[in-house]
Amino acid sequence: MTAEPTDIPIARQISMHAVTRTLLANGPTSRAELAKRTGLSKQTISDVVRELEDAGWLAPLGRTAGRPGRSAVTYAINGRAAIAGAVDLGGSKVHVAIVDLLGEVIGETIEPTDPRGGPHVLAQIGRLLDGLMGAIAPPLRHLRLVVLGTPGVFHPETGRIAAAPNIQGLGDIDMRLALAEQTGAPVVIENDVNLAARGEQWRGHGVGIGNFVFVGLGTGIGMGIIADGHLLRGARGGAGEVAYLPIGGDPFDARGFRQGTLESAVGSVAIAERYAGLANTSGPTVRDIFARLAAGDGAAAATLEETARLIAAAIAAVVAVLDPELVVLGGGIGARPELLDPVRRLLPRCTPFPPRLELSALGNRATLTGAIGVAVGRMHDEFFGIGVPTTGSAPPPIADPIKELS
Question: Is residue 13's pLDDT more than 90?
């Protein structure tokens, strides 16, 4: 590519911005239609299209059909003009994808998280990204950006991740700096549940909803908050850390400080222990408990009922503070309909204002989808923005999937 859009005078940037946003929102478009939609002169459109095509940002896609008169060449954004990496890092698995400028997944892979943690997990992420890049044909340029979703709380000042007990040693390294050095690309790190909320905002139940929360329940529990259309992080990045709600145990017992009082009562370990006590047995996993529930096991039903009561109480507390229109449940346990039904039934009993409750539309891809959306939004801002702050209503989703403001 001969030039980045930001190397061009501001007047031309504005014209390029209008053209690229129109193409992103409407798909393949002819020059005549671009002139009509943007209000720019035909000569300006011709110049801008030629410059963007020469630089590799646009590509001719075909010709108009089905209209009277001569056919015209249609143009579209060249998705392969820039690519980014998206990573969902969990305690049990690492899910990595390479995406293009239009959000298309070029390649992805998933494997168990290296149990040694810390630098070994960092090396694992780099290896997976390298492997995906090497498999792309024809070869593409280097990554423009990497977006990493991780458990715990990310501190922008230190680049470190705290409160992530399921991956040992993660908080001992500057993850952002180390991953940037390893990949040669800028790195954005975000809490995994926050990214899941962004994924639902982009392509799930949260589309068009300004105030909702995503509650992820699996090994642990966390929450991402969308308030007035924006992700809410709090003073230290800990907004939504519902694991520490004083529900389900004694909040003054310091033994709960590591995982949190609520997480100690509703996480996967707590569910298994609750069932073991009721059934006077040991060893079953949460998956086993759901299977036994389907078979009519009374202890399994009682276990899920008690877990649902605690989750309903936690949601009631969230409603009292945030007043969300929607609560999306996700995660390996939270996304189970067997849990959704009792929570829906119990919620009106503990709050006079029960919100709409839905299972995640994205399933186990919620965090990865959010990471992809943030990556694409960042690339759109970098390449198709005009370098000045903008205000007003949000653009169409494909034009700016998730605009990450930091």
Answer: no
